[in-house]
Amino acid sequence: MKKLIYLMLLIIVWGTTGCNERSVTSTMEPTPAPVSTSASTPSPTPSAAINHFIPYADHVPINEEVMSREERKKLDELGQEVVALLDDYVYVFNLNIPQKGEDKFGSVDPAGNFFPGKDFITIKATPTITSNGSDVNIAAYVEVRHEPHDVDPYWKGKKKFRFTVSGDGSLRLGYWNESADDMDVTHSDYSHLITIMPNEKKIADLNNNRTYISVNSTQQNGDFGIKVSTRYHDGDTRVTGFLPTTEDWENHITKNSISISALPNMDKAWILLHSDPGAGMMSKSLYTTENNGTNWIKVTELDQTIDGYVTGVSFRDENVGWITATQHGAELLPLYRTKDGGKSWTPQKIEIPQGYKYGNCYPPVFDATDLNTGQLVIEYVSDLETTRPSKRRVKYTTNDGGDTWLTNEIVPIPPTHYLNPNSFSDPIKQKLMKVIVQNLKAFNERDKTAFVDSFSKKATYQKESLYDYLTQQENMILINMEKPEFDPKSTGGSYYAISLQLSYYDLDTNEVKKSTSTYYFDNEENNSDAWKIGAID
Question: Which domains does the chain have, with CATH numbers?
């Protein structure tokens, strides 16, 4: 525990977000004709440098702080798409929504060392937008605050947000660390080098085993469809095909309704579509390709076979695969296996441990060099009292290709013993111990608000980030605290340290781990009731 806290502090102090310019790769798709972006500016002659982009289908609602609806109407489709991406960025940043490398904001270099979820960002976009074929820039005024209600920002500036057209036609934010002073804020300069694929919307970009699949919705002659572009093993060539959808819901899926599985070093993949839940039912369809994604066929519909909310699909080889799900209150785990390439599925039985109501399953992962070796994660949910974690993630392993899954014995969690602050006669020691107990209870109960509140405003590191790291990386709970040692650091009593021996129970290994932690305290207002944690060693 002590080493992990040190590691977290180093990550927070020294960590920065890397940014690599995304290059535009060639595709097998024809380049569409340019779309006019300004009535007053003639469109230049198309050239080989022209790149197209595909708008996203999953923008958040319009944020009028970014730009009003009236101002957006004055922009062309490219401008409206870029401003909509700024809406998305504000939403993702302020809510600290994790981004993967293939997401819109998976590799962003900001103007400063800002912290999503901790800092609060506002963006006011201008109509000044330029493009050079592979990039599109927009000038925007940015303010960053520690809290949303702060009157004055602690950082502000006029910045250039640069979006790059990736090889699959989607726009990705690369950086906003350059000043926009070199952009003419009174005139929008579209160079007409980025054009729009008509009647297409980006749904999702997914990857598995170095196979990259871009899924777009299309509309031709009033009919909707699903277009799939596949790129295997980091190659530059993309192959485009269409899913032979037959149900209306399949043509209106969202990013969270698609799962893929691809075999390493083979041009074989599966796509699992599932509808939004309605009336307790979720429609599901499985598709596969055997020719690099040129043609897709429907393997089967799974409405009557797979219960629950799908979490993913995973194939070990051409025949054996799994579909996993979450299903509240189910007696059997939602873990389904196929041995015929997905044509038929049967539940694979794993007993739910005593004391747990149900389990949420996640797709197994196999070693590419030894397909008999794999790992499966199941999250069990219990009805334990509120002072204990209600969820417990358990790792299972297999050495026989998934025929059997094994884990350590899942034993009942030991009770927790907290020191009683009132057992100390000194009022200051009582107060300090109450704060420590609050901090440790918050960790055990996964109460982020109480955890953060136990720290002083003077604390130099990001409390929210520390909480996220400890609760996500450590599958442990505190079961005992003992042997406190008090060390006043100044004769005035404004700085204090307490060392404790702490015992943690590892939910993965069922082992008890002991460590010694020292809590350093600040007195924020120089009175006996204002003690808060300044640091943990």
Answer: 2-198 (no CATH), 421-536 (3.10.450.100)
